[in-house]
Amino acid sequence: MNEILSYEFLGNSIQTYAVGLGIIILSFLVTPIIKAVIKKFAQDREVLQEWTNKFISPLVYLITLYVVLNTFEMSDDVYRVINVMYIVLTTWYITRIVVFVFSAIIRKYLEKTRTEEDRNRIKPLFSFLNLLIWLLGFLFMLNYLGFEVTTALAGLGIGGIAVALAAQALLGDLFSYFVIYFDKPFEIGDFLVFDDKKGVVEKIGIKSTKIRALSGEILVVSNSNLTNSRLHNYKKMERRRVAFIFGVTYQTNSGQLKVIPAVVKEIIESIELTTFDRTHFKGFGNFSLDFECVYFVKSNDYNVYMDIQEKINLRIYEEFEKRGIEFAYPTQTLYINKEN
């Protein structure tokens, strides 16, 4: 028996292979027990249970791999290859843990302080930060393997400057995304007017925002363009101020002129969601006696405003018709002087 165990194959005895195999089998048996124990003590902690499901098995297997490899005698070349593989696996595992911990912390913070809409908006940012963490993990791995990462980065020189200049617009949009997320000048579903464009916000990305125009097409606008523009956000408007002018003919007598403000006030106050402000005989126009009316609509819905304005116009027309008051329209009077 001792002779069989002492028999060597590829520089290692059968006993060494048996010990390594035993360690591997033991790791497969111990892993479920460790996971069950941790889950028992972490029943009320979802994050710890999630971490257990994702990372306990890789952790046990990495430790097992390290122990098993150290029981074997290997040549320097084989040891270097295996060492590189082990460093790559370890870097991958640690980077996954960092991404998981970072995501869990941010997710818990968002669940307590942010709405579902905010959580959806920050998903693109999560993807960018995860990419950044994986990039840093890759650089640390190269540095640990003996590559001169700092020298390579410093050697980029003019090329690095050119890349930075090319990425200037992208970085500007990224910082504008942070401004939009934290300052909240607008959100998904808001109706915006900027420059000569108007529409409803449908999606806010890291680089651009998609807006559904009134005519139906999608406007893709860079975030920096939006943050640098003067935005009119109508969704955040608590009430809408409305001012309109109408004119009556010069044939209207003084008694009729005096009653017009009271008539308009009564009409507006009888309609729901309105607050009357004023109606005045504004002045003498070229062909009309002009009145200006101001009121407020207690809604930011444009359709509601238009429905109310339509009611007001119809009621004014009806009341003026009853009182014999005529609306003015462009007219000219031509005087002809007849010479004898």
Overview of the molecule:
With 340 residues, this protein is α+β, with helices and mostly antiparallel strands. The chain has three domains: 153 residues; 51 residues, SH3 type barrels, CATH 2.30.30.60; 84 residues, 2-Layer Sandwich (Alpha-Beta Plaits). The chain is 58% helix and 17% strand. It has a five-stranded antiparallel beta sheet with strand order 6-5-4-3-7. The chain has a three-stranded antiparallel beta sheet with strand order 8-10-9. Strands 1-2 form a two-stranded antiparallel ribbon. The longest helix is centred in the N-terminal third of the chain and has 38 residues. The radius of gyration is 38 Å and the shape is rod-shaped. The mean pLDDT is 79.
Please describe the structure with a list of short key phrases separated by commas or semicolons:
SH3 type barrels; alpha+beta; 3-stranded antiparallel beta sheet; Alpha-Beta Plaits; 12 helices; 5-stranded antiparallel beta sheet; 340 residues; 58% helix
Order of helices and strands: HEEHHHHHHHHEEEEHEEHEEH
Q: How many domains make up the coordinates?
A: 3
- Report mean pLDDT, rounded to a whole number: 79
Q: Per the principal axes of the C-alpha atoms, what is the gross shape?
A: rod-shaped
Adjacency order of strands in the biggest sheet: 6-5-4-3-7
Q: The biggest beta sheet, please? A: 5 strands, antiparallel
